[in-house]
Design brief:
about 35% strand; alpha+beta; globular; seven-stranded antiparallel sheet
Length: about 160
């Protein structure tokens, strides 16, 4: 299965990283390509569903199917009635820092033949998705270190989401 992952080391405590990534509407604070992020379904302990509107107007629904307090979560993201990609947010820590990783298993488009998909993935999807994830993680780092919301496209524009 094809995936793209990215991680960042943060000087913040694990509880502060968890608080930032688990709060309602969290992407509004640190996601540089987010126009709006709103929770639409919760239970007493976790977010179950939210939506993300990107700067370019594209709207994705995120459905959380595993929520582990202080450890991370797993979700499916995509257009409301379209194909979804699996995403894993995971927090780990050691003595000196807290690490946050995001791993994305993108859905396979029917528009690309199975024969060409490996090339398309490695030379187009993976670099674009890696750059996207780095921007999101740098946004979180900026937010945690400066206690300020990131600005739109703060780390550069992205052709898929800006």
């Amino acid at each position: 299965m094809y995936f793209v992952s990215c991680s960042i080391s943060l000087k913040n405590e694990k509880k502060d990283v968890w608080k930032a990534i688990s709060r309602h509407g969290n992407l509004n604070f640190f996601h540089p390509f987010c126009k709006n992020n709103e929770v639409i379904e919760v239970d007493e302990n976790s977010i179950k569903k939210d939506f993300l509107i990107y700067l370019n107007g594209m709207m994705f629904e995120r459905e959380f199917y595993q929520w582990e307090k202080m450890k991370g979560y797993k979700l499916m993201i995509g257009k409301k009635n379209g194909k979804k990609s699996k995403v894993i947010w995971k927090i780990s820590e050691n003595k000196n820092y807290t690490s946050l990783s995001i791993k994305v298993f993108p859905y396979k488009s029917d528009k690309i033949s199975s024969l060409l998909y490996p090339f398309f993935f490695f030379f187009y999807i993976k670099p674009k998705l890696k750059r996207y994830l780095k921007s999101v993680l740098n946004g979180l780092k900026f937010y945690l270190y400066n206690n300020q919301t990131v600005t739109k496209n703060q780390f550069g524009k992205h052709s898929w989401f800006s």
